[in-house]
Amino acid sequence: MPRLKPRISPARAALAGPMKSDLSMFDLIILGSGVAGLAAAQCAQKYGKTVLLVDKGRRLGGRVATRRKDGFVFNHGTQFVTATGTAFASLLGHARRFGCLTDWQVSPNKTVQIGAPTMRDLPQFIAKGLDIHQQTEITSIARHGEAISFFDKDGLVACGHQAIITAPSPQSARLLAAPYPELAATASLASYEPCWTIMLGLENDDGITPMPLRDETAGIQFAALETSRQNHQRVAAEQIRPALTIQASGAWSQQHLETDPQDVIDSLTAIWQDITGHRLGTIVDATAHRWRYAKVSMAAPETAARLSNDQKLALAGDWLGGPRVEQAFDSGQQAFYALKASHETSNAH
Ligand SMILES: Cc1cc2nc3c(=O)[nH]c(=O)nc-3n(C[C@H](O)[C@H](O)[C@H](O)COP(=O)(O)OP(=O)(O)OC[C@H]3O[C@@H](n4cnc5c(N)ncnc54)[C@H](O)[C@@H]3O)c2cc1C
Questions:
Q1: pLDDT tens digits along 254-302
Q2: Closest Cα to atom 27, ligand 1: which residue?
């Protein structure tokens, strides 16, 4: 990953005052390459803005995630997407035309939409043409005159005239507490439930029902055989191996938040076997992933501030709308248009 510029520390940057022109200066910097950040960035690009996305993760997409290991493919975050509004429905329509979205029958009378060939292909589709720096964890944000500066542990990453923050609300609250307390206050109003997810690579999946399993009272929110996803013929060239992804309910995950990952694997495997009555046989590979901020349990109220007092920084993320990808997407677009409107108003005066 190329570094943007040599770094200077937050203290030196503060002493230097307004940013010098030789530093990386963008119209808009977006923290987070999840669906909210990508949606905002696509809008910005459409209007000819210079935009940079920074994200701490190894890969883009945030919680719309796919992990590959030794021929196994696990969709260990979002399981499927649904659209109720026109903006997200239109995006899904485009993705489908480009072969990045397909259907998955999850019960005899329910079909949902999934990324193709994997869930991460959907954010990758939205990300086309964007300038994204992964593995860049922002540790502080500061205001310097007309600019907003982003720092990681090595110093200054880049500066923007405007910014959008899309991290989950507790992380946004921490980053914004000093420079934008009015927005940190908004972030403190939202909350999430966690989700323990286990990924089991199997020797074979004979006899396992292809329909996903849900049993919240037993502790399972969603469990699916990865090979049952209708689109797997597109991955066939990679010969994906039998794999089972099991996601615990919010209540179970909260109760076991600090449990050792191996114990989580053993417990959720046992619960799944008890419910289905199926013995899994040889488990070739087992991994647990804890999503600390998985699904929004309480969204910030619409009346709370989403734009900073100086009109330069906007909030986005599912926690401003609700627990689904569509709400993240909508929030990203709304954040961009709020900044655009404030910029036009200030230019008119
Ligand atoms: C297990 C699970 C199952 C789900 N199932 C579904 C489902 O079936 N259907 C559905 O619609 N939704 C589902 N969701 C919810 C859905 O994934 C989210 O609503 C949506 O992806 C949120 O997008 P976002 O862009 O708001 O946040 P995120 O995807 O979390 O993106 C935020 C990004 O900010 C980055 N970041 C945070 N802090 C920093 C920092 N300091 N510096 C740099 N980068 C930073 C993170 O790395 C992350 O990539 C599920 C979520 C989980 C976890």
A1: 999 999 999 999 999 999 999 999 999 999 999 999 999 999 999 999 9
A2: 34
For domain 67-124+191-297, which CATH number applies: 3.10.20.30, 3.30.70.100, 3.30.470.20, 3.90.660.10? 3.90.660.10
pLDDT of 293-335, one tens digit each?
999 999 999 999 999 999 999 999 999 999 999 999 999 999 9
Name which residue sits closest to atom 44 of ligand 1, judged by CA.
55
pTM over 0.85: yes
> 10-61+127-190+300-348 belongs to which homologous superfamily?
FAD/NAD(P)-binding domain (3.50.50.60)
> Which residue's CA is the nearest one to ligand 1's atom 35?
32
- 18 Cα–ligand 1 center, Å: 33
Q: Which two tokens stand for residue 12?
A: 């030196």
Residues 6 or more apart whose Cβ sits within 8 Å of residue 349 = none
What are the C-alpha distances in Å from 55 to residues 47, 66, 197, 218, 241? 22, 16, 22, 35, 30
